[in-house]
Amino acid sequence: MKRILLVEDDLSLINGLSFAIKKQGYELSIARTSEQADIIWVKEKYDLVILDVSLPDGSGFDICQKIRLTSKVPIIFLTAADEETDIIMGLDIGGDDYITKPFKLAVFMSRINALLRRSSNFNQGNQELVSGKIKIDLLKTEAYKNGALLELTASEYKLLCLFMENPDIVLLSEQILGRLWDCHENYVDSNTLSVYIRRLRKKIEEDPSHPQRIITVRGFGYKWIPVD
Description:
Blueprint: E1 3-7, H1 11-23, E2 27-31, H2 34-43, E3 48-52, E4 54-55, E5 58-59, H3 60-67, E6 75-79, H4 84-92, E7 97-100, H5 105-121, E8 128-131, E9 134-137, E10 142-145, E11 148-149, H6 154-165, E12 170-172, H7 173-180, H8 190-204, E13 214-217, E14 221-224
Parallel strand pairs: 1-2, 1-3, 3-6, 6-7
Antiparallel strand pairs: 4-5, 8-9, 9-10, 10-11, 12-14, 13-14
Helix pairs in contact: 6-8
């Protein structure tokens, strides 16, 4: 049974989400403050975390940053803020999806199911991927450069897997977004993708300002070049 941690302080929203999530057969833990979230997180292992950005004693952004120190668990931000800067910030610090209130429960559950499904799919198939000095251990969901462990978020890891599974092939931005997010909302666009590309380049390229592995194909998307 998949385990989900919901960090939200709105009781009416909690009730609605709890009913929908449990109806899908998922096990749910609830925290209404940042302090409660910190305590609950260390006690159990979760397959997905849903974070409200505005909490009585802190921010979901802070919780996300703490989680990313030790885990690649998929994270969805849930908030009333729909400013582009907030969305980009949430994704840039390690979030996998960003949903703004109000929303339809059916759509929300579809996003949860898709994210859990993609997370499971990325752990199946071959045991490792190797491209030059970059190696991915799919069983451990870990990536290495020159034998050193790379500190990647869940989305960075999935993006790297996608590139290394498709060397020397131009991947359209729409294809990449569809594979990683499985949705077509307006905020999930080329600007959002560029945040992930820039962040991943900083971790795997020798010179991120002159990338040799992840090449931009103007007007189309990106291509992975196997570099020795």
